[in-house]
């Protein structure tokens, strides 16, 4: 029996839903739960303008509470689906399924989630994809494939046409004994890619992920790359992000041409109790017909929205207040995972 021909779709391709997990007092959000809930309400409100959202909750009580909070904010609850699942925290970009699609089938790649290299307990998060699969969230056309290899969804970015973008810093930290050639071969096989582009530079202070690509650089339609730039020579990120920008400028498309580049503006430093927080405009989420971008209450928010409108023409740019999220070192893309069109069970 021949293996089905599968493809890793780009985020801008049609989606059936966005998957998130509701923050609770049992997650790392406990100390600032009210602020974070407000961000989640704004996020669900933005998503449901364009498509459904699937919300993981740990139990019926949390589901009832979340329902009331969302409904009282006039959210279209016909587009909200709850599913009970156990989880440690809400970073579903990294614990959720990495979905490949074929003509009539899907594969849910269920990689190991280790809490970003063992920094945090993630035993329940590592079981999340299996729990959702058993709960019947996904179409019967979907198969789950467990892969004993640590990989987070935020560490990889695809153009939907066989090219993967990632960072050496993150993959090398997770797999210090693996060569670049070995990692390239394995990623290409599991994710149905025939090119892997590596960045050796780029980081954000306060980032727990060891330089996830989704905080730094993202593919956009038409052989384009959107990336987080830094134009402040006095900022400690300046040299590293300048080096990353030069690396990105040197990348070539499949046809040997340079990518069209969209540098994002640099927000002012956000400091919490003396700790620099990892604010990045590159951590945006694409949904059907729109781009949801993290807003930080910074003068650069509007400029970032203008760049994203250029990079993703024809999509509405919706700002979601994400300052509470970066207290835990992640942002909008990190707490979401898109499900390709047809993957969600009816």
UniProtKB/TrEMBL annotation:
InterPro entries referenced in this protein's UniProt entry, alphabetically: Peptidyl-Arg-deiminase_porph
Keyword Hydrolase applies: yes
UniProt-recorded Gene Ontology molecular function terms: agmatine deiminase activity; protein-arginine deiminase activity
Keyword annotations from UniProtKB, A to Z: Hydrolase
Source organism, top-level taxon: Bacteria
GO BP, one annotated term: putrescine biosynthetic process
Name of a matching Pfam family: PAD_porph
PANTHER family cross-referenced by the UniProt entry: AGMATINE DEIMINASE-RELATED
Protein name: Agmatine deiminase
